[in-house]
Every structure is written in C-alpha cells, then in structure tokens.
Design goal:
By secondary structure, this protein is of the alpha+beta class. It contains 10 helices and 7 strands. Helix 1 runs antiparallel to helix 2, helix 1 runs antiparallel to helix 6 and helix 9 runs antiparallel to helix 10. Keywords: Membrane, Transmembrane, Transmembrane helix.
Length: 303
C-alpha cells in the first residue's frame, strides 16, 4: 500500500502474482507464438529469395538478401554481444528479451494459438491493420489489473501507476509525482461516475464537464475491496467541485478547425470512392486524412 500524509486520501493497490497470473501468461505466450510464426515466415521468404536469385542470376535479389541477413541476423547477435559486455543491467533489460515468463504448460498455447491468430490474414490481408490495435488493447487490459494509486477528494488529485510501474512503486511504498510513469490528474471537472464490477475489480467510468475531459482518464480500475471508498471519494468530488470551464478556443479558430476537418474528411471520402480497388491507398487515407479531419472536428465542437 502507498502511504500518504492526508487522512482523507483514499489509497489502493491491486498486484496479482505476476508469476501465476493466467491472463498475463496466456496473452504473452500467444504474442510469442505470433512473433515466432512471423519470424519463421520471414526466414523462409529470405531463403526463397536467395535460392531464386542464385538460380536466376538476379544480383539485385541476392544483394537484398545479403543486406537483410547482415542487418537482422549475425550483426544483431554481435550487437547483443556488445550490449552484454558494455551495457548496464537496466539497458540490457530494455534490449534483450526476458524469458522469465515462459512456462512449459503454455507452450502448446503458443504453438497452436500463434498460427490460428495469423490464419485470418491469409483470407483477409486487410485485417493486418487491426492486429496492432488488438495488441495494444490486450496489453492495456493486462496492465490495468496491476494498479497502485491514491485519490484526495479535497483537491480532486489522482495519482496512479499501472502495469510494471505499479509493481515497482508498490515495493518503494511511495508514488513520486515527478516520475514520468506516475500519472497525476486533476479530477475537479468530474460531473458523473458510473461503476461496473468485473471479477475482482471495480471499473469507474468517469464523465466530465464540458471542456474538462482533455488529458484526464475515462476509466479508473481499482480492486473490489477499495471500490466503496473510491466511489465515495469520487462522489464527494462531484458534489464539492467548483470547477468552471474557461473561454475555450476563439470562435474564428473553431470555424477554421471545423472547415479544415470537413475538407480532410471529404478528401478521405474521395479516396474511398475513386480508389476503392486499391486497399493500401484507402487505408493510408483513412489513417492520415480521416483521423486528422475527425480530430479537427472534435476540437472545433468541444472548443
């Protein structure tokens, strides 16, 4: 538990055993299975290109294969060797993969689950765009289950750390607001709170006043035994807060943002209509012009 000097401050700590956390181990082994399959496919492609280039006399293909092997193969091993000789333990932990989470009973999950997760790509290559989002969501779910935090209902100040940072700061028994991994938020604009119970956790959905949502958490996950105390603190913030929105953006700026957002979205629609047969072009337009346009419209509306 993270101690505080204020009696009204609510604290909590949810730290499942990382060595036996089934959800964490399952997702990690599935990710390792996907990475192993992708690595084997890349090696097979490089070997095929080398054989085809050697037999067909295509020197460009052979040169490409040699460069890729030097950059991603033996040279990488040499880099790791230098790191193990001159790097600190912290630097090695950031570079070298940690195999401490591998479990023998989960290896069948990695061997079977990895190919099964990649199988839809053979049918719909466009799903490749969704895989990074799925990975981020899975990592987010795992990290939120490890949480250490404190909430002061008098000031509306929330401090929390999630994931590996929560384990680190729980051992140190303090949350340093100056540390980058410690999130510090002002919940004064809080307008409404909804509570959901998911297993051994309580999930608070936080709703804010107009112009008060930017840069503040939408979800707050706490252990079930702290749900009542955290809920009471949040309700107190809602009742006692005197937060008021500023003037916001100037009207001319909002009009300009709205116009630019509409233009960007129209350009995205044009790409989608006239380049429908080229999936890569449409995906790029949506990921750039579409997102920029939507962001500008949201900024113009929220002001």
């Amino acid at each position: 538990m993270v101690p505080t000097g204020n009696d009204s401050t609510v604290t909590w700590a949810a730290l499942p055993d990382r060595e036996s956390d089934r959800l964490r181990l399952l997702l990690f082994h599935l990710g390792a299975g996907v990475a192993a399959v992708v690595g084997l496919l890349l090696v097979a492609v490089l070997v095929a290109l080398a054989v085809q280039g050697g037999l067909g006399g295509d020197t460009g293909t052979v040169l490409l294969v040699v460069v890729l092997l030097l950059v991603g193969g033996p040279m990488s091993l040499w880099y790791f060797r230098l790191a193990s000789t001159y790097g600190t333990d912290h630097e090695l932990g950031a570079i070298l993969p940690n195999a401490g989470w591998l479990r023998r009973r989960y290896l069948p999950v990695a061997a079977v689950g990895g190919p099964l997760l990649l199988l839809p790509l053979a049918l719909r290559p466009g799903l490749l765009l969704a895989y990074p989002l799925a990975f981020v969501a899975a990592r987010w779910v795992v990290d939120l289950r490890y949480t250490v935090g404190s909430l002061d209902p008098k000031t509306g100040r929330l401090r929390r750390a999630v994931g590996a940072a929560a384990v680190e700061y729980a051992e140190a028994e303090r949350l340093d607001p100056d540390e980058r991994l410690v999130g510090t938020h002002d919940l004064s604009p809080l307008r409404r709170v909804h509570r959901l119970h998911v297993g051994e956790y309580a999930v608070f959905v936080l709703r804010y006043r107009r112009r008060g949502w930017w840069g503040r958490p939408v979800l707050l996950v706490v252990p079930a035994d702290a749900a009542e105390r955290v809920g009471a603190a949040l309700e107190r913030i809602v009742r006692t807060s005197d937060w008021g929105a500023g003037d916001g953006l100037d009207r001319s700026v909002r009009i300009a943002l709205g116009a630019l957002g509409a233009i960007f979205l129209c350009a995205t629609g044009i790409f989608a209509v006239f380049a429908a047969e080229r999936l890569a072009v449409v995906a790029y337009a949506v990921a750039t012009l579409g997102l920029f346009g939507a962001g500008m419209l949201v900024a113009a509306i929220r002001g």
